[in-house]
Amino acid sequence: xxxxxxxxxxxxxxxxxxxxxxxxxxxxxxxxxxxxxxxxxxxxxxxxxxxxxxxxxxxxxxxxxxxxxxxxxxxxxxxxxxxxxxxxxxxxxxxxxxxxxxxxxxxxxxxxxxxxxxxxxxxxxxxxxxxxxxxxxxxxxxxxxxxxxxxxxxxxxxxxxxxxxxxxxxxxxxxxxxxxxxxxxxxxxxxxxxxxxxxxxxxxxxxxxxxxxxxxxxxxxxxxxxxxxxxxxxxxxxxxxxxxxxxxxxxxxxxxxxxxxxxxxxxxxxxxxxxxxxxxxxxxxxxxxxxxxxxxxxxxxxxxxxxxxxxxxxxxxxxxxxxxxxxxxxxxxxxxxxxxxxxxxxxxxxxxxxxxxxxxxxxxxxxxxxxxxxxxxxxxxxxxxxxxxxxxxxxxxxxx
Length: 400
Hints:
Blueprint: H1 3-14, E1 22-26, H2 27-41, E2 46-49, H3 56-63, E3 68-73, H4 76-84, E4 90-92, H5 99-107, H6 109-114, E5 115-119, H7 122-131, E6 139-144, E7 149-151, E8 156-158, H8 168-179, E9 184-191, H9 194-197, H10 207-238, E10 244-247, H11 253-257, E11 264-267, H12 269-272, E12 289-300, E13 303-307, E14 324-327, E15 332-333, E16 343-347, E17 359-363, E18 376-381, E19 384-390
Parallel strand pairs: 1-18, 2-3, 2-11, 3-4, 4-5, 5-6, 6-9, 9-10, 10-11
Antiparallel strand pairs: 1-12, 7-8, 12-13, 12-17, 13-16, 14-17, 15-16, 18-19
Helix pairs in contact: 5-7, 8-10
């Protein structure tokens, strides 16, 4: 029996009394992935990206482990909810226009001490001030650096379009604008190198593309390390007591951790290891989050149909954004139908062994987005479900 077949047998036994669709997290794999992130971080604390987890119980579990400290959130409403729930170090990774949230933040000393907001433009300070509604608490601010690699005098750009702040002088100028402004304090710098951390460099069957990605990422790491260090020096001239410099992502943990200027690493997807993280030379994780759909039809020879399945991930549309049939091995989509909203045909000789009611296990393309489809995660240890935990959605929250 292969390792994957053994996992399928475990998951089927663990969920034998549960009707599909059902989502699980294999805690043995989850904990092993957490240990690997800590090893790669080389002693620097890891701030957990909540959008990649979206389950309070699992955030608590990983933050209880040595090597993890703090949360990187994705909306202001989520940040405030987490802070009210007892998480005392929440960095909002994206600028917000949530005026009601800013009013709540500025009026509550506990929330203001726990939550740090992201800016990259003084106009965002204007929005916060206009939303205060009399709240006078000092708002903790993090400045985001654009990490994109620019070539040919800026005519070629490689990297996500996030912050407009690219140079040390630009970041320092915004730091000065915050310092001049009552009611705000710069406490950190963030720089997420998605073109390094979030792009696989060992794509199966694409050796030339993979080599090109590795060359690009090597150049990008060198350029960013020099520029990030210069940015930190420039900002520390304005803010000598800067608390943290955050960088990284699951795919670049060890490289970012090697930079002296970086004080903490951000990671989250590496805990669940969705399918988009299969194609990396920098690490190999264990799939921890899966979902099962039930076989409801057998339309013909070598074909079964499962209920549901149209759970595409965000990003540029493409086949790599679809969940992948994982267990049993050997199933594939019908190219004429793909993953359907209500039903999904699956092809392959192994389909002949599947009966009505059997489970087919899938892996989602991106990590936490799976939790927008399920209210509950069943947490598996060995071949048993030992507990269940609500997702954000299961607690009544859909923040985006």
